[in-house]
Automatic annotation (TrEMBL), chain A:
This is Trehalose/maltose import ATP-binding protein MalK. It comes from the Archaea. InterPro entries: AAA+_ATPase (IPR003593), ABC_transporter-like_ATP-bd (IPR003439), ABC_transporter-like_CS (IPR017871), P-loop_NTPase (IPR027417), PstB-like (IPR005670). SMART domains: AAA.
From TrEMBL, chain B:
Keywords: Cell membrane, Membrane, Transmembrane, Transmembrane helix, Transport. SUPFAM superfamilies: MetI-like. It is found in: Cell membrane. The keyword Hydrolase does not apply. It comes from Halalkalicoccus paucihalophilus. It is a multi-pass membrane protein. Residues 75-283 form the ABC transmembrane type-1 domain. This is Phosphate transport system permease protein PstA.
């Protein structure tokens, strides 16, 4: 029930998935993965192998195996309580902060299982940025918000670094000249872009986004979506969303989790939305899923 | 009202509000009881203090003659004592609260500590006085009725209150802010230092200052540890004998001279209350300042 999901892609060219060609020992080399079109290739950055998460006795995520390609947008969609956020938060070990959470299987980042004994979750999170559902800027100035990651990571804080991050987050023009005012004075959409600037300021390799636009109005949402596509030039973006249109618009790959914490289908976004393999996925995407 | 009495589609009937009004009056009476009592008390002592509470009273040492008696040494003693208590309780209280809220796992030991802190907050102050006498005066030989012993003893008394207030302030920091910090690769200490403490500081300070307000009015523990009833000079060191306002007022009230029993005691009470209310006002100002800044 769990192993056929990543190989569900009917395209034979996609033959380098984890379950068909295990690669013991050589994980540190990023393996290439042929896309649906068979032309462009992107190395795998994050890869889960039979990753399962439990909250106490309750299993929130069924064993999940998937590969997230570099510098692309990978969307994770599914109904409430389907384990999509749980999966996302297991990538940078944010689930560690929940006492009752327990993880089985492997989550590999650049080939290294991040749940190995010798991996420091704090060091891991310095390479994997995160943006949350509700905008959560610190009650500090805009400048201090952007500089936060640089500060805690012991990196030099320069005006250029702050400006670059704000420009990349498409917020610079709106906050230029008021960097010392509180981040809380911004509108909801601006706050979320501030949070994105904060996440990218220390230049992480991966940005995780947990429903980043769900608390925003349509205009702010569309700004965030444009921004995400822009960010994928430089960063690997993994975004959880319950908005299927959003996933269809901005992502290169889509993973569909369904009730029970099960990854049912994972593949090219276009194919998932146009020609899903599983009936349950089609029902969910077309809104029949209840 | 009920469906069967409805005569017309547009006649909604009426629901009696009598009990509502009676209930409202009862709750209003409950609310007024404390305030009115306090107001009467304030008026009485203020009236009695008129003519006695003046600059001479505030700046003079105690004197056998009521007209020349003053509260200066006790006033200074109380303020110095309060500063010392703040220096002891703030780091200890905040430290304990940080441990309990941010580090301790929700185990049996934590719940045991938590329960005991809550219980300690309710222990009568005279018991703390006894503890101070045994621990600081006799065991550690800090001397009878010295400033240091009093500071430690009253600190122990208000420490549980400070811890509980600090815990509540720390708990009220939204978890989303901690998550944001951890998500940036901050360590626990960095998160506490940069996010949790700045955000909870107003609440911690409000709680601490209100606890200090309680400390400044305490008399029983001071009697237990041998604080002198009357001193004529201000304390010149941690091991100096001193007096505090409640002690001095208590002493005056036992003088046979009625001028002391009414006039001087009332002047002392008003001084004590003014200091106390000023402290509470500062606490409220701090709280309001940060609350408006945050929202």
């Amino acid at each position: 029930m769990t192993q056929d999901m990543t190989t569900s892609d009917p395209d034979e060219s996609d033959g380098t998935t984890a379950s068909t060609s295990p690669d013991p020992g050589g994980f540190s080399e990023a393996r290439t993965q042929t896309t649906q079109e068979g032309t462009s290739t992107a190395p795998t950055v994050v890869e889960s192998r039979d990753l399962a998460v439990y909250y106490g006795d309750e299993q929130a995520l069924q064993p999940t195996t998937m590969e997230i390609p570099e510098k692309q947008v990978t969307a994770i969609i599914g109904p409430s309580g389907c384990g999509k956020s749980t999966f996302l938060r297991s990538i940078n070990r944010m689930n560690d902060l929940i006492d009752v959470a327990r993880v089985e299987g492997e989550l590999r980042f650049r080939g290294k299982n991040v749940y190995d004994e010798d991996v420091d979750p704090v060091a891991l999170r310095r390479r994997i940025g995160m943006v949350f559902q509700k905008p959560n800027p610190f009650p500090k100035s805009i400048r201090e918000n952007v500089a936060y990651g640089l500060n805690v990571q012991g990196k030099e804080v320069t005006d250029e670094a702050v400006e670059t991050a704000l420009r990349r987050a498409a917020l610079w023009e709106e906050v230029e000249g008021k960097l010392d005012s509180s981040g809380l004075d911004l509108s909801g959409g601006q706050q979320q872009r501030l949070c994105i600037a904060r996440a990218i300021a220390p230049d992480p390799e991966v940005i995780l986004m947990d429903e980043p636009a769900s608390a925003l109005d349509p205009v702010a949402t569309s700004q965030i979506e444009d921004l995400i596509e822009e960010l994928a030039r430089d960063y690997t973006v993994v975004i959880v969303t319950h908005n299927m249109q959003q996933a269809a618009r901005i992502s290169d790959k889509t993973a569909v989790f369904l009730t029970g914490g099960e990854l049912v289908e994972f593949g090219e976004t276009n194919r998932i939305f146009e020609n899903p393999e599983h009936q349950r996925v089609e029902d969910y995407i077309t809104g029949k899923f209840g | 009202m009920a469906a069967e009495t409805r005569t017309d589609e547009t006649d909604f009937g009426e629901v009696s509000r009598l009990k509502d009004r009676v209930f409202e009056s009862v709750t209003l009476a409950a609310a007024l009881f404390g305030i009115v009592t306090l107001a009467v008390l304030l008026v009485y002592v203020t009236v009695d203090a008129v003519g006695w509470l003046d600059w001479q009273f505030l700046t003079s040492p105690p004197h056998p003659l009521a007209e020349e008696a003053g509260i200066f040494p006790a006033l200074v003693g109380s303020i110095v004592l309060m500063v010392l208590i703040a220096l002891v309780t703030f780091p200890l209280g905040v430290g304990a609260a940080i441990y309990l809220e941010e580090y301790a796992s929700d185990g049996r030991l934590t719940r045991f500590i938590q329960l005991n802190i809550a219980n300690l907050a309710g222990v009568p102050s005279v018991v703390y006085g006894l503890l101070g006498l045994g621990l600081f005066v006799q065991l550690l030989s800090f001397g009878y009725g010295t400033l240091l012993v009093a500071a430690f003893t009253v600190s122990l008394l208000i420490l549980p209150i400070v811890i509980i207030a600090a815990q509540e302030a720390i708990r009220s920091v939204p978890d989303s802010l901690r998550q944001a910090s951890y998500g940036m690769g901050a360590t626990k200490r960095q998160t506490i230092r940069n996010v949790v403490l700045p955000r909870s500081l107003p609440g911690i300070m409000t709680g601490t200052i209100l606890a200090l307000g309680r400390a400044i009015g305490e008399t029983a523990p001071l009697i237990m540890i041998g604080v002198p009833t009357t001193v004529f000079g201000v304390p010149n060191g941690l091991f100096a004998k001193f007096s505090a306002m409640p002690m001095q007022i208590y002493t005056w009230s036992s003088y046979p001279d009625t001028a002391f029993q009414y006039g001087v005691v009332s002047a002392g009470v008003v001084t004590l209350l003014v200091v106390l209310l000023s402290i509470n006002s500062i606490a409220i100002l701090i709280r309001n300042k940060y609350q408006t800044e945050r929202s």
